[in-house]
Amino acid sequence: MTPTAALLAFTLAAAILTVTPGMDSALVLRTAAVEGGRRALMAGLGICAGCLVWGAVAAFGLGSLLLVSTVAYDALRICAAFYLFYLGVKLLWGGRRRGKSSAGAVQALPPAATANAAGWFVRGCLTNVLNPKVGIFYITFLPQFIPAGADVLRFSLLLAAIHALLGVLWFALLVAATRPLARWLSRPAVMRGLDRMTGAVFIAFGLKLALERR
């Protein structure tokens, strides 16, 4: 496989994976609808930054520890499960409090986290960095698209950058799609529903990670 063919094949595969519904898209959509487009974009950038972190880890070979060390994998898995469960409970509890607020002004997440866009960037980044399944994906997926004779480190980083760029474009599209519906999405009942749905998704992913066995 030539470098050009490898890049095209990876871009197509990564694009399909990017648009597949999952936890990342749920987080960005919920944030765009309830917190605004800017914070949603920062959450999306954080998610993509997490992909770059795992891409770099895989490129340098450190991610192989997750394949051979059960302790390392389980430690990261449990941390991710607790973090996702924490976010899910916060969203569910915030949706309940929002329902009791006549103005719907109570936020679903702690004020400190929603005060600036940096908090959303960190939240998005942590959802990927703490997920060992993302690491395993990079360790096993990227090598399939590295052509013979290519610089493994540089080509792996390039593939990770392509995946991150596709993610940025997809999240920007999701945020743009919510703009025409901004007035409807800002209704307290709709925001409560989004909080509960996204919270349930996060808890489900957290429980799945916690109960998973290699």
TrEMBL record:
The chain crosses the membrane at residues 6-29, 41-69, 75-93, 152-173. Its main location: membrane. InterPro entries: LeuE-type. It comes from the Bacteria. It is found in: Cell membrane. Coiled coil: none annotated. Signal peptide: none annotated. It is a multi-pass membrane protein. PANTHER family: ARGININE EXPORTER PROTEIN ARGO, ARGININE EXPORTER PROTEIN ARGO-RELATED. This is LysE family translocator. It comes from Achromobacter veterisilvae. The lineage of its organism: Bacteria, Pseudomonadati, Pseudomonadota, Betaproteobacteria, Burkholderiales.
